[in-house]
Amino acid sequence: MFGYLLKRLIQMTLVLWVVSVIVFLMMSFTGDPVFMVVPIDATDAEIAQARRILGLDQSLLVQYWRFISSLVQGDFGNSYVFRQPAMTLILERLPATVEMVLVAMALALAVAIPLGVYAGANPESRISRTIMAGSLLGISLPGFWVGMVLIFLFAVHWGFFPSSGRGDTAEFFGLRISLLTADGWHHIILPAVTLSLATMAILLRMTRAGMMEVGRQDFMKFARAKGATRRDVLYKHGLKNALIPVITIFGLQLGDLIAFATITETIFSWPGMGKLLIDSIYRADRPVIVVYLMLVALIFVIINFLVDIVYTLIDPRITLK
Amino acid sequence: MADTAQPKLLEVRNLRTYFHTFAGTVKAVNGVSFDIASGEVMGLVGESGGGKSVVGFSILGLIDSPGKIEGGQILLDGEDLVKAGETRLREIRGRDISMVFQDPMTSLNPLHSVGRQMDEVLRLHSELDAKARHTACVEMLESVGISRAEERLKAYPHQFSGGMRQRVVIAIALLARPRLIIADEPTTALDVTIQSQILKLMRRQIAEKGASMILVTHDLAVVSEMADHITVLYCGNVVERGRTRELIEAPAHPYTRGLIDSIPDLSNRHERLQQIPGTVPDIRNLPKGCNFRDRCPRAQALCAEVEPILTAQRGSLSAACHFPLSPGETA
């Protein structure tokens, strides 16, 4: 177990290092950030000085060395635009994104699993066909369109939910969390629903496919021959066996939504990381983009690790080696 | 079988189970009748596709769409299981009638420990508390010949060999002390060396517990060692039945004769193995008259016209044949 963890840690570090190289090179070859910080009428001398201050006059190798050594020390530099540490900027907005994604993923699971199990267990029924048709819509309708329709119906037309913003938040270990206030919940519903639909549809279809596969297995019939209820046969014997691919997709989608909730955040003016990323790209605010990309890489690596751990909890035949 | 005075545990009357597929209706079981007294072992014999397994699943009400029990009665102590609801059937499954499947590699849930899968039966069918259930599981596992049972309860199916898994399956089938066990080809998937061990185990366990058994198999050699009487199925119909001894030594139906002759005889190693010519007819589209006539050396014009019905023959035998064999006669 310890050996596995060590191996895994080395792998994760390697992945992050490769990402850091890619991010660094990408940043070095796209645009010159000096012009973002100097005034429009700056002289050549002023530009050269700014370049020196930012360290942009050094060779690429030296620049990378400085980049990676400060990265390792947790220093990601200041935002060119906000003149604040880039890390602080991101971390301020991270909770907003993460809580919206978590609500969306919980919602996706809560709907996808029971409907997927039902559709997999009764593939011929009319209800199952309706569920599958609905899931096809969920996959094919683009998020920005769904978001706008939801705003039009639930915010503008009926006025059930607010159309934008995050509402009241409460402090929790220094983080601002909306899930602790009723107003926060009121605000989070629409964006979370928008964000969850595609994932919900994918998870539903994975669950159904898995259940149909498992339904043909002998042990399902053996469980019924023991006298187990239909519910126990489906959920205790069937679902657990159908879950591995569902968990895999769940992990990937979780990372994906945290990293790229940008569109939904923009539509609902949700003050999360995605919106910050878009703004930073427009302004060539390099340090912020770097932190963002590194953070996303880290999140993916960690989620993948957790997914692998969950595999072993589900299936005793899978061991950590 | 008229000589058994014991009360009947299970009576199957004119059971018909059909599968409605796109390609047509498959009459997998088409008017099968038999009965079993308490403590008896009945062999249900036939070729692949002869409807043997479907009989077993029909008794437990485990026929899935597109299959359906179209008619007949399955009387357990006089209660008709065909008419019983799902709730009542769930009570009966595992408690009164349990099942042992063919392939032990697939009949256990790979993600649940053996202990949990055993415990499930007792949770469903007994009032015992957790501790008593655990003790019962340990005892049962030991009695099917698994050592260090306490430890093995925590193990998962993949940590057992095929033979050991079948012992676990048998233990699960016996746990709630059912009165009838349906064993569907219980040794077919096992090594030959393990087969006889498992058969002996089942035989002993059933005798100890006073349970009855339906042994579904294509292997007459197995059934002749185990069963009190034998029912032979062909194309979803009973073609012959009778006491094991009589049926094996001098069958009345040419099909049974063919099955017996195709058992390899090791003392006669230079002789070519006997076989029944031809194949089972398309069960979706059965011919008029006797289903076996195309493969039967004794077939005559009558066989193509009139379907024979099961009639009493010598001794305990009944056979569905217009021209039954007399003792000593070869087909």
Tell me what you see in this structure.
The complex is a heterodimer of chains A (321) and B (331). In chain A, 74% of the residues lie in helices and 2% in strands. In chain A, α8 packs across α10 and α9 (218-225) crosses α10 (230-259). Chain A has 321 residues and is mostly helical. Chain A starts with a helix and ends in a 7-residue tail after the last helix. Chain A folds into two domains: 2-72, no CATH class; 91-314, MetI-like (MetI-like fold, Orthogonal Bundle), CATH 1.10.3720. Chain B has a domain at 8-227: Rossmann fold. By secondary structure, chain B is α/β, with parallel strands linked by helices. In chain B, the strands form two sheets. An eight-stranded mixed beta sheet of chain B has the order 6-7-8-3-9-10-12-11, with helices on both faces. In chain B, α8 (192-209) links the parallel β7 and β8.
- Unreliable stretches of chain A, pLDDT < 50, 5 or more residues? none
CATH superfamily of the domain at 8-227 in chain B: P-loop containing nucleotide triphosphate hydrolases
Kindly report the CATH topology of the domain at 8-227 in chain B.
Rossmann fold
- What is the global morphology of chain A? globular
Sequence of secondary-structure elements of chain A: HHHHHHHEEHHHHHH
- Kindly report the spatial arrangement of strands forming the biggest sheet of chain A: 1-2
Rounded to an integer, what's the Rg of chain A over CA atoms? 24 Å
Biggest sheet architecture of chain A: 2 strands, antiparallel
Distance between the termini of chain A: 7 Å
Whole-number mean pLDDT of chain A: 88
- Percent strand of chain B equals 15-25%
* Helix-strand sequence of chain B: EEEHEEHEHHHHHEHEHEEHHHEE
Number of separate strands of chain B: 12
| CATH arch. level architecture of the domain at 8-227 in chain B | 3-Layer(aba) Sandwich
* The named CATH superfamily of the largest domain in chain A: MetI-like
CATH fold group of the largest domain in chain A: MetI-like fold
Derived from helix and strand composition plus strand pairing, the structural class of chain B reads alpha/beta
Largest interface, Cβ cutoff 8 Å:
A-B, 22 and 32 residues
Structural class of chain A: mainly alpha
Number of helices of chain B: 12
Q: Any idea of the CATH class of the domain at 8-227 in chain B? A: Alpha Beta
